[in-house]
Amino acid sequence: MVGVLLFAYITVNLFLKCQGQTIHQAKIYSENSEVPEGGRLEVTCSTFGFTVKAVYSYLCKNGKAILMKKGTPRQDTTFKIERIEMNASGNYSCVFSEEQLEITKVTGYGQNYIFINVIESFIYTQITLLKPEVPVGSDAEFNCSTSKPLHKNLSKNMIWAYLIKNGTPVEVNIWDTEKMMTTLTLRDVRIEDAGTYSCVVFLNILPYHGMRLHQNITVNLEITGKNGRGQTKKKLQFRVII
Ligand SMILES: *[C@@H]1O[C@H](CO)[C@@H](O)[C@H](O)[C@H]1NC(C)=O
Ligand SMILES: *[C@@H]1O[C@H](CO)[C@@H](O)[C@H](O)[C@H]1NC(C)=O
Ligand SMILES: *[C@@H]1O[C@H](CO)[C@@H](O)[C@H](O)[C@H]1NC(C)=O
Ligand SMILES: *[C@@H]1O[C@H](CO)[C@@H](O)[C@H](O)[C@H]1NC(C)=O
Ligand SMILES: *[C@@H]1O[C@H](CO)[C@@H](O)[C@H](O)[C@H]1NC(C)=O
């Protein structure tokens, strides 16, 4: 009997929480509503005017809580999300509760909302090899280009183009916004430099360790022996994978 009553009590309690009776609206602030892909989203939840207690604040995206923090009395709570992905775009707002609730059960919109737009940070460009043959010890030159000009409003600073091998930047050069291209040179190539290369332009962000760079438009560099001696024919393969 006691077990049944306890069960009923817990059920009713959960039901109330699901009904949103313990969830209250808070305010959200953010300095930017545009965040570059790979950058940091920083928003502040404020319960000022709603409570003077230390409460649990929840950051909601599209009406569902995604993060929770226990606040201190009369203090705003800041949420930071690093290395944001394109799918983080959405309608952000803040709610709070006096008791800690299970995050997946917290839904709703706060007093106000901010639509956060994740903007593109990388542009994968066309890539070609300028020289058809690259023997050991010489330079391999890559030509990276776009057919459309980049949105200049995206970056007021210098734009950098990176040569990517195995998802990692190996060379960098300044992007020529007039000619919509740049040349990247690998000097004094060794046998190990053979492989698949891509070119990516960074608009709003600098590369960081652990960044994921796709390689969907590629060229394949082959390195031949010093004087053409040996088994490998001097050959440079060109390939575009789309
Ligand atoms: C966003 O996409 C990444 C992979 O591209 C995935 O790991 C992550 O769970 C997604 N996040 C959301 C909120 O959908
Ligand atoms: C964000 O959510 C609010 C509350 O549901 C809604 O009124 C508003 O239209 C949404 N805005 C966008 C841009 O989706
Ligand atoms: C680089 O490639 C682009 C597009 O393929 C081409 O128009 C341009 O002339 C090339 N630049 C050089 C210096 O070869
Ligand atoms: C850049 O300009 C385009 C076209 O006018 C616009 O759609 C885009 O939102 C702008 N981006 C930024 C970061 O201002
Ligand atoms: C390469 O990948 C990026 C990111 O996934 C995508 O935006 C772009 O359209 C792709 N390009 C091609 C030519 O497939």
UniProtKB/TrEMBL annotation:
PROSITE patterns cross-referenced by the UniProt entry: IG_LIKE
Pfam families: ig
Keywords per UniProt: Immunoglobulin domain, Signal
Signal sequence, start to end: 1-20
Domain Ig-like: 21-104, 125-201
Transmembrane helix recorded as keyword: no
Name the UniProt record assigns to this protein: Uncharacterized protein LOC113061320
Taxonomic source organism: Carassius auratus
Organism taxonomic ancestry: Eukaryota, Metazoa, Chordata, Craniata, Vertebrata
